[in-house]
Amino acid sequence: MAELIQVDAGGPDELRTALARALDGGPALGFGMLGDAPAQVPDGTAVVIATSGSSGVPKRVVLSGEALRAGAEATAARIGSGRWLLALPTGYVAGLQVLVRSLLAGTDPVSIEGRFSADSFARATLPMVGTQPLLTSLVPAQLATLLDAAGDRTVLASLRAYEAILIGGQALPQPVHERAVELGVRLVRTYGSTETSGGCVYDGVPLDTVAVRAVDGELRIAGPMLADGYLGDRALTARAFVRDEHGIRWYRTGDLGLVDDGVVRVHGRADNVIVSGGVNVSLDRVERIVRDVPGLAAAVVVGVDDARWGEASVIVAPRGEALRRSEAEQLDHAREAVAAVLGKPARPARMILVDELAQLPSGKPDREAIRRLAAELR
Hints:
Layout: E1 2-7, H1 12-23, E2 28-31, E3 40-41, E4 45-51, E5 59-64, H2 65-79, E6 83-86, H3 93-105, E7 110-111, H4 118-125, E8 134-138, H5 140-148, H6 153-160, E9 162-167, H7 174-182, E10 187-193, E11 198-202, E12 205-206, E13 211-215, E14 218-222, E15 229-230, H8 234-240, E16 241-243, E17 249-260, E18 263-269, E19 273-276, E20 279-282, H9 283-291, E21 300-306, E22 310-318, H10 327-342, E23 350-354, H11 367-377
Parallel strand pairs: 1-2, 2-4, 6-7, 6-8, 8-9, 9-10, 22-23
Antiparallel strand pairs: 1-3, 4-5, 5-15, 10-11, 11-12, 13-14, 14-17, 16-17, 17-18, 19-20, 21-22
Helix pairs in contact: 2-3, 4-6, 9-10
């Protein structure tokens, strides 16, 4: 067994040193473990990350140094090495991997000071320009913030300075992607999870050491970057990580999708489904369609109880572009778009406008808080 050290808030330099030791067999690091963390973990463990993931079920993901290095090396093989900007919390795998990639490349990452904003992003980026290739990892909400401020030449120059901006954590709305491309921003859309040491499918194509297949409509991933399992939960580990007839170990993602001529296409969470009027409705598919409606690129779609239909979907969106039309007009547009693709039973029942969407520290929407809000206002 190996020693586990809990990691709280600390400077990136201090964390980088501790992470280097953890990758080389030193004490393992525990992120988000709170006060009930064990003092020891299995040998070979480098990091344990507590996460609720997409399901909301608390999990403690065990990642070895071998898995983290494999993920970082596969990323470098795909997009190259350079100097990284750390714009995400290190308690999340996307932020942690920025440190791992920097360690393997022998470079020092630059951190954003204070709260993320277009100004802090530009101030951190511009001094690095011209030194070596620049790379960073963001979530869609951060990218949208930067694009909204891209009328400022300094912000636009900062965005364009990066050889690659990895975008993950959730699906990137198509309108946001199109805006970035029009401005000359080099994006790489990633797919993965803490259980895969972060993103391992780039722009739909698995990294060189990764295999992806669909089994009964569910995406499964194999490769050297897979987690060892869940700390203290053998049953959950056995359900999520399975071996095939050849002994190859696969991670069951819980995501629906397919692999089409080598390209991975994700359709949404298998468990993010409501039954409305006896019809199964994927909230992820509804949300993707809604986000293509002008003014609703940042919208979140959640399910609530409904007296008539059993369950119904509700659009929750920040005020702004949505107010260029009346709320009723905007909802009608969204309902028509959803009905055209998924049929009338999938149409959202209501739209709620808010000043600001609740977010997790990772920058992802806090879907549970948003769902509770929708339920209260239903």
